[in-house]
Amino acid sequence: WPYTTHTEWRTVLGDRIVAAVDQFVTEEMCDGWHMFGDQTWCNKAMKAKNVIALSFGIEERDLYSEYMSNYYKVPTRLFDCFIEPEKSPPMAGTAPNGTKRCPKNSGGHCYETPYQSFRVCLGPDKTSIHGRSYNTLANELKGRGPLSTHVKIDVEGSEWTVLENLLASDTDQMKIRTLDMEIHFGYRAISEAAYDDLPEEDRILRQIKIIEGLKRKFYCTGTTLETYRQGWWPEKDCTHQQCHEPVVHTSGGFSPQMFAVSYVNKAIVGEVPGGGEEAAPAPAQAAAEEEEAPAAPGGEGEEEDEEQSPAPPPPPPPPPPPKRKKAPAPAPAPRSPAMLGGDGGVQWPSLRKCKYKMPQAQSSRPGTPCLPPAKKWPYRENTAWRTKLGERILKAVSPVVTEEHCKGWILYGDQTWCKKAFKDKFPDPLGLSFGIEERDMYSEYLSNNFKVPTRLFDCFQNPAQSPPMSGKAPNATGPCRGGNHCYETPYQSFRVCLGATKAKVEGRQYDTLSNALKSRGPLSTYVKIDVEGSEWTVLEQLGQNDEDQDKIRTLDMEIHFGFTAASEYQYNSWSQKQRITREITILEGLKRKFYVTGTTLEVYRQGWMPQQDCPKQQCNEPVVHLAGGFSPQMFAISFVNKDIVGVADLDEQPAPPPAAPSADDDEEAASDASEGERSAPEDEDEEPPQPEEPADGGDDEEEAAGRSSSLRAASASSEPTAKKYGFYLHVFNAPAAVIHQVRQVKKYFPGSPIYVMSDGGMSFDELCRQEGCVFQLCPPANDRWHPWPFLRRLYDAALSLRTKYVIMLEPDNTIHGPIKREPTADAGGLPVKGRTFGGREYPERLAQERRPGYRWTNKMMSAGLAGGAYFSYEAITDAFSDEMVAKIDWNYLAETRTKEIFSSDFAMQYALAARGYDMEPWEECAQMERSKDKVFSGAQDAAFRHYCGCYPGGKPTYNLQVKPKDRYLFKEPLPRHNSENSNCQICYNFTKYKQDWGSTKCTNGLPFEYSKKLLRTYFPDGKIPQMR
Q1: Whether 638 contacts 597, CB under 8 Å
Q2: Cα–Cα 20 to 30 A to 230, which of 369, 456, 669, 999?
């Protein structure tokens, strides 16, 4: 129990809140979900015409109304009486309005349909309070027809009487299609002053009854409660029960005082049995663990919660709450994937025993992919149709053509090429590459290794950031050396995207594959398609055109199931199941003319860590998955034309019967990678993964990750995974740069895990949900001057990634290819010639405890540990742990040297040296300064580049613009982060950090104070700066 007290009524009301927003409507009833930020929308509600949206509570920018306008073409009205118009373009009326297409230079604020803004707040009456105008929801709904209005309310506690009035009017309720709110229990808003004299319990009880009343006309579709629970770390923040009890909490301690909730009108969905018509049940006191295991298999019977463990004194523990019964799950998931078993109980092919034949290869691989199941089912649900479609994908992309048929393989990046397709010379060869980004290794490889001329197509990539798209890359100028952009044979580039028709979509030019293949001869053209979900209608047309298929020699693609691309908009109204079924059917159709030669599925499976990422079945079920849990939603695939192979109908030959399933997970399957060929061991009973109840008294997921000091030490001592490189992206905002960088990492290091940490208040949750990374939002902390949060955040990233090496990237780093020079030390970074640090005797003396005779050499000091640097897992989890960092006398170092000791790139050197770790200048990390092309230090062909502010034209990634299709992958900075100023020196305050942010999350958990001598030196007037 994390709190100093335990009040029964707070528990009862907290559990009642959770029950009030429990979800009855399912994805199938809604024809799918649309999840965006704080909203979970029922797809059925988003298809109507002649509707408007009302958005109450705007702040500077209102992504809700922008999304309604730009995605659903819904006119909007915005209301706020607190935000100053000069700080908010839409409130000032200066945001582009009804433009039909939002220009790039709009700064993000832009509306394609008309909007209106009003300096009016939402309240229970039409009145003026403290000089601000308020109006009622009923007035704003006047004249609206049934189911004609989407409503969003985020008014910081002013919502309750507004909602109470809404409940009194069935007519107004029937006008609302969707209702999205942030609700606040126990807040004291100006417009709710009439209830200030009520006791706190009575005020909150009134608010809960209002929420319960909404269930008469609306279904709840989703909340942010689960996300907020994942961000609550009681074992770290309240280790001695020292935290104050919140105004309401569940039996397990989590507080649902404030969260976002989404509703859909019942008339949209139709009545659902048991769907909330009845009165809310009497609140039951829950078990001690807030995170309960999923329902028993098949929803059989009822299950009792465990009794609450008594809290250690002081204070005395509360009595164990009474047991309660769970209601049966409305849509129970199968306990075991094998229960689905295909038709007739046959085991799924993915559950066969298998071996990783090329465990070290980071490229696409030939042969049937080995995709061992997770030991324990990792997701909250297990939907039968998602498994069936996942297994159908695997069957469609499992190669039958062999190395003998192809006379060997060529493996490069995302490609597995059949050698027969490259051996014979033929007239007029050509490579077509659709989807380029900054650099296109596919077309360069074809040009420089096989002397194939190429044509490059992309309408999103800014030519200024892409030498081939701007025509500046060397073009058929002779031999290419040095690893830069270069083509030995002629190339052409076109600002055109691949699409189903020749047309403009959102201002970008699209053209068809058939047009690009015009006048091409049989088997004359190599084709690569990487167009982020725009491929399906293109492939559908190709499958219907034998003449075009006969022109293609090899076909390489990155395919995306369930994405919603701009050029595929006509299918957005289909349910998710319908869309994915169509996509699989298209893929299967390619097998009539082509053989699959390889995929990246096996590489991606090696990078999937269900035991680490989903230890308590807390992960959301992906759109498709195999019976063992692995998701084939996105991967690269290679095809060769059957006429090249010269063997017909290999696909018709029966596949060998599948063996018994293996229950291995990746940590075991990858542990002996160095031994080459290896088997995925079976569990003794050979059962596939099973959902498992958490162990009695077990830690929750944050606790298991080591949130307390002792648990952190235990976590750090565990071995990293067999994956060699993980990437830590330390970001502030710069969304275009961050999105680009995540995709570049995935491009050059497929399967490597990525951890994104933002301390600027900008959320990249949606980016990581789509791209498969981990996101962490931390409080502000300018790392140039505050090493304690900086080192802790890198430490947390290492524990999450669990790879042999962690490569730290900043948004201004660019990535130019795979690593060619392996690390040889414990850490390495930018070569900084001639740099040394003073006071080396002190860290060397500390290092003797761990490594007698250690010397911190000048060569080590010349390693610049900035963006692009690498660190071993051991070095981070030892030298950057809270305990080791706290052992260093930072005040002594600053007093005897300068305050620059607190700069992160200095502090890391001292911290690593104090534990006896070796550092090296690393040629894979290059510094770019006043020359646009020539590196200042490091290798010309370095994998990573770091830029100074003097770079011509500015740092390249900071010139990127967010693509329209990506503008919803991030959320604007939180107001509180914007109000903080962490750009101050010698101003870190451990006590204030805890007070301001409620915990020591993302910083060293051990106290630190500057010495009086140091403060007198730099602030003789006594005016010490504060983070604010």
Answers
A1: yes
A2: 669
Pick the closest to residue 915 from 879, 874, 861 (CA basis): 879
Burial 519-554 (b: 16+ CB within 10 A, else e): ebeebbbbbbbbbbbbbbbbbbbbbeeeebbbbbbb
Cα dist from 355 to 175, 352, 358, 434, 672, whole Å: 59, 10, 9, 34, 11
The string of pLDDT tens digits covering residues 721-740 is 447 899 999 998 789 999 99
Determine the pLDDT at residue 949: 83
> Token pair 């709710």 is at which residue?
192
What does residue 767 show for φ and ψ, rounded to 5 degrees? Answer: -60, -50
Task: Give the up-direction half-sphere exposure of residue 55: CA atoms within 13 A in the CB hemisphere.
Answer: 24
**Which tokens sit at 825?**
């030390």
DSSP state, residue 194: G
Count Cβ atoms within 10 A of the Cβ of residue 289 and give its class: 0-12 exposed, 13-18 middle, 19 or more buried.
buried
Kind of pairing between the strands at 725-731 and 754-758: parallel
Whether 495 and 510 have beta carbons less than 8 Å apart is answered as no
Phi, psi of 40 (to 5 degrees): -120, 105
Q: Average of pLDDT values for 88-102?
A: 86
Residue 808 forms beta bridges with which residues? 728
pLDDT band for position 979 (cuts 50, 70, 90)? low
Name the token pair of 662: 């293996």
- Tokens representing 581? 């079924």
At residue 245, does pLDDT exceed 60? yes
C-alpha 43/C-alpha 23 separation (Å) is 16
> Which range, of 345-349, 588-592, 793-797, averages the lowest pLDDT?
345-349
Q: Give the torsion through C-alpha atoms of 357, 361, 362, 363, to 10 deg.
A: -80
Read off the pLDDT of each residue in 114-123 and give the average, rounded to a whole number. Answer: 92
Helices (H), 696-758: 701-704, 709-717, 735-748
CA 598, 601, 602: angle at the middle one, nearest 5?
95
DSSP code string of 958-1018 = GG----GGGTTSSBPPPHHHHH-----SS---HHHHHHHHSS-TTS-SS-----HHHHHHH
Q: Is the pLDDT assigned to residue 929 strictly greater than 80?
A: yes
Specify the 3-state DSSP secondary structure of 116: strand
Q: Estimate the share of the chain in helix, then strand, then coil, as percent rounded to the nearest 5.
A: 30, 20, 50
| Tokens 């730290």 sit on residue | 808
Question: In this structure, what are the phi and psi dihedrals at residue 946, rounded to the nearest 5 degrees?
Answer: -120, 140
- How many Å apart are CA 698 and CA 701, to the nearest integer? 9
Q: How far apart are CA 903 and CA 896, in angstroms?
A: 15
- Residue 150: which H helix or E strand, with range? strand 149-153
Whether cis (ω within 30° of 0) applies to the bond prior to 378 is no
Q: What pLDDT score was predicted for residue 283?
A: 32
Structure-block tokens of residue 643: 């006429």
Q: Is residue 734 a contact partner of residue 957, using CB atoms and an 8 Å limit?
A: yes
